[in-house]
Structure prediction request, 134 residues.
Amino acid sequence: MTEQIPKKINVLMVEDNPADAFLTKEILSESENAAYQITTINDAVNALAFLHKLNGFEDAPRPDLILLDLNLPKMHGLDFLARIRDDKYLTTMPVVILTTSEFGGDMERARELGVRGYLAKPIDLDEFESVILR
Prediction:
């Protein structure tokens, strides 16, 4: 019997904190249920260029999922999310918010913009892992 190799899931992680990006990649790399190809971009402006295949990102793969921090340089994560929801080519792309912000207004606005999940980054490593792998 031949073992099936899982399809790689292309993830765009928009995260400006290198430690959080590293930890998220480590946790996802240990998943037995899927294989992930993760691209990390540290600001929303360059993430939009990536999604539109501009400014050096012409060969960028289309993400299957976006992991999005909210408190980003150059453009807030909710503004980025609104921009992709207004784009007919990106509007259906699944987005999960992964942030330290637990401000109710951010959660409400993210839900209005159709996010798949809103996860507050916990400080505890085990809790963080369980949130990411849900």
